[in-house]
C-alpha cells in the first residue's frame, strides 16, 4: 500500500510541459572526407523472437561505417509510444532513429518530433517501395518515415488438426463456426483462439461486414453505422457458441501458447508471430503450420494494414548518420535478411524477386494478403482510436453489453477525440 | 501509542475548540489563549529563541514548496486551459515551439461533471476504496491480534507477513496476473484439479472486481498488521490482568480494552489507506487495464488514459481530473476528521 506510480505519472503529466533538460547525444556529423561519424541511438520495438536478429543487423552498420557508434536499445512495443513522446517532448533522451509503428508516424510528425526525409539519404530508392506501406509515411505532403516491414493479419492453422477433423480451411466466419464444432468433437481442440483484448483484431470483422472506423475524406465517424455492431455480434457469437475461446487480457501469450500446444486449431495472427509459432511442439515439423487469408464476413474479406517504419528524431544531434542508418535499415539487403531469418515481409518490390525470399512459403503467402490489406486512416489520432474499441469489444465479449450500444459508445468516444468529425 | 481516553473525553466535554496539543503548548508558554496583543510578542520571542531551528528547516520548506507546490500550482493552472501535447511549449533539437494554448476558465470542469463517465468511475472508485480498506483493516487487525500472542514461530509469521510489502508493487501485480490467468493460471489449474470449472478471473466483470480488490488487500495487509501490532503492544498488560480478575470474557476484553486501545492508530491508518487505495494506480492498470470493458477503471486510471494513452495527450482535462480527485480526498479528510472529533478523538 505505497504510493503508486499513478501519482508519479500524474505529476509527470502535469509537469511535462515545464521540463526541458539538455540531452547528451554524442556529437558528430560529416567530416571533411565525407565519412559520417558519431553515435546513432536506435530504438528497436521488435518482439522477443525478432530482437536478436535486429540487434545483429543494427550493429553490422558499424562495419560499413567504422566511425559511427550504433547504440542498440530494445524498447517494448507497448511502452515505446509513451517513452518516445516523453523523451521527444522534453528534448532529452530521445533516440536518433526509431522503429515506429505505422499508426504513430502521423502523430509524431504532427507534434513536430520527426525530421522530414524528402531529399535526404534516408529515402534511397523510394520508387522501389510498395504503394501500400508508403501511405503511412506521409503527413501533410511530406515524408516522415521509410517503410521497413509491412504486415497484415492472416489465419494461422494447424494442418494436422484440421485434417483429423476432416474440415477445409474456413473462408468465412460462418464456415469457421461449423468447422470449430467438428474440430472440438474429433480432436478436443478449440476451433479458434479469438483475440478479445486487442482492438487491432476487431478490424477484420469490421471490414468483413463492409464497415470502417472513419471516413477521413468526408470527416465522418463510421464505426457506429451498422457494420460495427454487426462485427461485434459476429465476434460475440463465435465466443458464446464455443467456436472460439478468448481472454479479456493476456491474449498475446495465451493465444500463441494455445496454438503452439495444439489447444486451439486456428488463430488470427501476423507474420511477426511466425517465428514464435514455429518454436512450438506442434510445429516441430514446419510443414504443419498453414497460413490462409483471414475469413470474411457478410460483405467480403479484408485485414488491416500494419507494419513498421523507420523515423528520424528531428532533434537528433547527428542527422546525417541517422539518415544513413535509416537508409541501411530499410535497404533491400536488410529486408532480404529479415525475410529469410524471421519471415518478415519486405516493403521493397525488388526484394520479393530474390530467390531466398521467393522460396519462403510464409512470405509468399502473405504477399498477396498485404497487397490487398485495408489501409487505415493515417491521421495523428489513429493510435488513440484503439482504446475505445478495446474497452467496448471487451465489454461485449465479457460484460454483456449489447453490440449496438457498444458500437454507439465507440462512435461517441471517437467524436470526443476528433473534434471536427461528424 | 497508548491512548488516554480520559483526556479526550475531557476535551470534548469542555466544549472548547482548541485541541489538546494547543492546550499543552499554551500551558508551556504560560500565555493564556485569546490575548491578541501578546501574539506578536510571542512570535518575536519564538523567533529569537528558535531562529536557528527556522534557519535549519528553510531549505526543506523551499524544496517541498518546489516539488509539491510548483506541480500542484501548475496542475491547477493547466486544468483551466485547453493545453494538450500539440499546443504546449516544447523544444525539439534546435526548434523552439512556443505555447499556443488558451485560458478557458472552468470549461473542463463543467464538461467532466456533466459527463456520466466521471460519475460511473466515481461510484466504482468509492466501492473499491471502501471494499479494500474495510477488508484490509479487518484482516490486519485480526492477524495482528494473533501475532500479538505468544504463538509458536511468531517471528517467522511476522516476517512472512511483511514479505508482500518488500516486493515492488508491479512485480506482485504481474505475479498475480499470472496466477489469475484464465487458461494457464495456477488458480484455475488447482480448481480444475478439484473438479471445479475454470473461473474467468479477469474476464468477468464481477470476478475482475473481486480479483483487483483481493490483490490490493494482499498488498495492503502487511502495513495494517505492522501498524496494528504497534498499537496492540502499547496497551498495558495490567488492563487485561484486571479484566481477567473481574472475570471478563475474551470478547468483552476485546471490545472494552483492545478496541478503544487501538482506536487512535486505527483512525489514522484508515484515513491513510483510504487515500492510498483511492489513488491505487498500479493494481488496476497492470492487472486488468481497467477491463473487462471499463468495469474496474478508477478515477486515476482514467486520468492517466487522458494524458498518456490518447493522442494528442490531453493535459488540461487530465489535470482537471487530478484536481477533482484532490478536492474529493480533501473533502473526505475534512469530514472524517470532524467525525472523529465529534467522537472525542484528539487528532
From TrEMBL, chain A:
UniProt family annotation: Belongs to the bacterial solute-binding protein 1 family.
Protein biosynthesis among keywords: no
Name of a matching Pfam family: SBP_bac_1
Signal peptide: 1-20
GO (cellular component) term, any one: ATP-binding cassette (ABC) transporter complex, substrate-binding subunit-containing
UniProt record, GO biological process: maltodextrin transmembrane transport; maltose transport
Native source species: Streptomyces armeniacus
Name of this protein: Extracellular solute-binding protein
PROSITE patterns in the cross-refs: PROKAR_LIPOPROTEIN
Domain of life (superkingdom): Bacteria
Keywords tagged on the record: Signal, Transport
Keyword Transport: yes
Automatic annotation (TrEMBL), chain B:
Alphabetically ordered keywords of this record: Cell membrane, Membrane, Transmembrane, Transmembrane helix, Transport
Protein's cellular compartments: Cell membrane
Domain of life: Bacteria
Bilayer topology term: Multi-pass membrane protein
Gene Ontology annotations for the cellular component aspect, listed alphabetically: plasma membrane
A GO BP annotation: transmembrane transport
Membrane-spanning intervals of the chain: 51-72, 122-144, 156-176, 210-232, 269-287, 315-336
Pfam families documented for this protein: BPD_transp_1
ABC transmembrane type-1 domain sequence ranges: 122-336
Signal peptide feature range: none
CDD domains: TM_PBP2 (cd06261)
Region (Disordered): 1-38
InterPro entries, alphabetized: ABC_transporter_permease (IPR051393), MetI-like (IPR000515), MetI-like_sf (IPR035906)
Family statement: Belongs to the binding-protein-dependent transport system permease family.
Protein name as it appears in the record: Sugar ABC transporter permease
